[in-house]
Amino acid sequence: MEKAYEGHVLVLPYPSQGHINPLLQFAKRLASKGLKATIATTHYTLSSISAPSVTVEPISDGFDHGGYAQAQSEKLFLESFKSNGSRTLTQLIHKHQTTTHPITCIVYDSFLPWALDVAKENGILGGPFFTNSAAVSAIFSRIYEGTLRLPVRVEDCPVVLPGIPALNLEDLPSFLNAPESYPAYLEMKLNQFSNLEKADWIFSNTFQALEAQVVKGMGEHWPAKLIGPMVPSAYLDERIEGDKEYGASLWKPLDQECTKWLETKPQNSVVYISFGSMVSLTQQEMEEIAWGLHKSGFDFLWVVKDSERHKLPKGFLEFTTQNQEKGMIVNWCNQLEILAHRSGGCFVTHCGWNSTLEGLSLGIPMVGVPKWADQLTDAKFIKDVWCVGGRVKVDDELRIVKREDVVMSLNEVMNEGKRGLEIKKNVEKWRGLAKEAISEGGSSDKAIDEFVVALKTFATKKYLN
Q1: Catalytic status, residue 221
Q2: In what order do the strands lie in the sheet with 270-274?
Q3: Helix (H) / strand (E) containing 83
Q4: Domain co-membership, 364 together with 216
Q5: Per-residue pLDDT of the chain in tens (465 residues, 90 and over written 9)
Q6: 397 CA to centre of own chain
Q7: Are residues 32 and 81 both part of a single domain?
Q8: Number of helices (H) and strands (E), helices first, in the chain?
Q9: Is residue 228 packed enough to be buried (19+ CB in 10 Å), middle (13-18) or exposed (0-12)?
Q10: CA dist., res. 344 & res. 250, Å (int)
């Protein structure tokens, strides 16, 4: 019975791939340290999650058969998730109440602050998990408290916040100069801070060495435990046996030829391109990137979703079909395996936070093509703060990247010039620091241990007294 009181953490992600992955990885970390960990996810995403050490339980967002796509509106989806999620999350807590493993804490995606109300109503602990960088959290925190006012115009720049380098408009989350463009998304970002003072902990998927100045600048506004990078253990400290993948995939793996193709390539020679599961490029921009890749002369592996494939120029598709020696287009591949492969030369990325942490953790130079939201700030740090890559210039008139700028950025990162060598040196430095943070005794490992000890103490007091 002693085991029953070590603590049971219910982990609640926002139901999209970029949010499920880091929270599921955190659940695996907690399970490896002796806690019982359960992922609570929507009915629609339930079958896509599988990790040996973590239990998976369903809750409802009100759209059990189609999820967000069924709702067709961010506002409607979030309102429905709050009402149905609160009800079914409470039921899940009650279901476990009489077992040998009653739930003692909810770690919830910061997009879902209502989960903290559920925790408090049921007499258990709770804390949000921020899936973006500390820098992005700092920006939205300042907007929430009113010290950074919207809209942010060109004449208001550069924006200077404590611990953060000066940010121009192209470095700030994209809709801050037009807040009316994504009202539901902006409201969701600001609501992350709505009840933080009631939280028992705040977790952030970053690490001390990476964003120490940012966190210091936020002071008591955001006393977060930095527990990242939440990347599978096999690529960092190797302390969780067999942990090579996140264990969640909302996309069916249809093409696994990537690794075979990479084996035929020299070390550090391949450009890997992926813009994540959510980004959709215009046909004109797809064409510019395609011909930029072709013109660069580098071997490349490009992940293009089936729904985007028609945007590729016909001549380019013919070239890659006939000459797979030079380039390969696939609709899916295991990104972690690709980034870790010896032939990887650089990662052309949309600069989503998970991809950014993967690039840093696996030690591969990056070329940023950020499109919206937090990606622009991540790209700024990749290029100018951590100096681990470049960023393709956006054409002032067309608002897209042009082929010649794609070529220029690839050459800068891939070649052995002064900048390229500096980037490669920095990449190795950050890879070492990421591994150190999550390894035994590292800053993130200590932060996780502190949480585990505190939760075990709470569980013992609550259920043994």
Answers
A1: no
A2: 327-330, 299-303, 270-274, 344-349, 366-368, 389-391
A3: helix 74-97
A4: no
A5: 344 468 999 999 999 999 999 999 999 999 999 999 999 999 999 999 988 899 999 999 999 998 888 988 888 999 999 999 999 999 999 999 888 899 999 999 999 999 999 999 999 999 999 999 999 999 999 999 999 999 999 999 999 999 999 999 999 998 898 898 888 889 999 999 999 999 999 999 999 999 999 999 998 888 999 999 999 999 999 999 999 999 877 655 545 678 888 999 999 999 999 998 777 899 999 999 999 999 999 999 999 988 899 999 988 888 787 777 889 998 888 899 999 999 999 999 999 999 999 999 999 999 999 998 999 999 999 999 999 999 999 998 889 999 999 999 999 999 989 999 999 999 999 999 999 999 999 999 999 999 999 999 988 887 765
A6: 30
A7: yes
A8: 16, 13
A9: buried
A10: 25
The domain in which residue 389 lies consists of: 258-433
User: Do residues 456 and 412 both lie within one domain?
Assistant: no
What CATH number should be reported for the domain holding residue 21?
3.40.50.2000
**Rounded Cα–Cα distance for residues 256 and 243 (Å):** 19
363 CB-near residues (< 8 Å, 6+ apart): 427, 428, 430, 431
Domain membership flag for residue 330:
yes
Position 363 in a domain: yes
Residue 191 and residue 267 in one domain:
no
Query: Same structural domain for residues 385 and 365?
Result: yes
The β-bridge partners of 301 are 272, 328
How far, in Å, CA of 390 to CA of 168, rounded? 17
Q: Residues 108, 33: one domain?
A: yes
Domain count, the chain: 2
The helix or strand, by DSSP H or E, that contains position 11, with its residue range, turns out to be strand 8-12
CA angle 420, 426, 432 (to 5 degrees): 140
Assess whether 361 and 299 both reside in one domain. Answer: yes
Q: Could you tell me the strand order of the sheet in which 55-59 lies?
A: 55-59, 36-42, 8-12, 105-109, 125-130, 203-204, 225-226
Within 10 angstroms of residue 449's Cβ, the number of other Cβ atoms is: 13
- For the entire predicted model, the pTM comes to 0.95
461 vs 457: CA distance, rounded Å: 6
Among residues 56, 36, 57, the alpha carbon closest in space to that of 247 is found at 56
Distance of CA 204 to the CA centre of its chain: 11
- Identify the three-state secondary structure at position 364: coil
Residues pairing with 328 in the sheet: 301
Cβ atoms of 286 and 363 within 8 Å: the answer is no
Kindly state whether residues 152 and 285 are assigned to the same domain. no
Domain annotation covers residue 253: no
179 in a structural domain? yes
109 is catalytic: yes
Q: Which of 109, 171, 405, 445 is catalytic?
A: 109
